[in-house]
Design brief:
heterodimer; A: 112 residues; mainly beta; B: 115 residues; 11 strands; globular
């Protein structure tokens, strides 16, 4: 099966940089995604990494190391609106390609 | 209108009742999913469908059934609801392999309370 670990809570101040780590165990790895969720609202897609390295999208970047089964989401120039839960999700090919398994999420609190 | 619409948004029911949660989408995606979220936890996959005739169990399918009535519609049923099925339920869609296939688009959620 698949399992993912990420910290349950992270706190940072406005304007700072924060990194949310995710380690995973899976078979048939395809890629690692990140989603943001505000207070029980719909999760929204942030990024996807299939290959090793850093992907940058505005203030958010995501990194993947397949050899270490590890990834992280980097949020720069934090804003109050970034306070939310962040989920990593592994897309695997077992038993059917295209199925995503989510971690339990990291609650980010941004303080003034 | 939302790309992925879930109804009802909130439902309170009693133990033993049959409940159906409905999901419709206008994105033209082939793949549809039902996830469950409990407080403080991630999303767990209940069922997924890659097209109208391809339905698969997820990690927590016991006590649930689904129906893919059309490409755009995917409903989740609880035949006899029990209190530990109280949760927030999300429908999601994605296109088949190709550009954008790695992005799940979620509905706003259906909050179900079983008394």
């Amino acid at each position: 099966g698949q399992s993912l670990e990420q910290p349950s809570e992270v706190t940072a101040v406005e304007g700072a940089i924060v990194q949310i780590n995710c380690t995973y165990q899976t078979s048939g790895f395809y890629g690692l995604s990140w989603y943001q969720q505000h207070d029980g609202g719909a999760p929204t897609f942030l990024s996807y990494n299939a290959l090793d390295g850093l992907e940058e999208t505005g203030r958010f970047s995501s990194f993947l190391s397949r050899s270490d089964s590890y990834g992280y989401l980097l949020l720069q120039e934090l804003q109050m609106k970034d306070s939310a839960s962040y989920f990593c999700a592994v897309k695997s090919g077992e038993p059917r390609a295209g199925k995503s398994t989510f971690g339990d999420g990291t609650t980010l609190t941004v303080k003034p | 209108d939302a790309d992925v619409t879930q109804t009802p948004r909130n439902r309170i029911t009693k133990t033993g009742k049959r409940i159906m949660l409905e999901c419709s989408q206008t994105k033209g995606h082939d793949r549809m999913y039902w996830y469950r979220q409990d407080p403080g936890l991630g999303l767990r996959l209940i069922y997924y469908s890659f097209d109208v005739k391809d339905i698969n169990k997820g990690e927590i399918s016991d006590g649930y059934s689904v129906s893919r009535q059309a490409q755009a519609k995917f409903s989740l049923s609880l035949e006899s609801a029990i209190p530990n099925q109280t949760a927030l339920y999300f429908c999601a869609t994605s296109p088949k392999p190709g550009w954008g296939a790695n992005v799940l688009t979620f509905g706003a959620g259906s909050r179900l309370t079983v008394l």
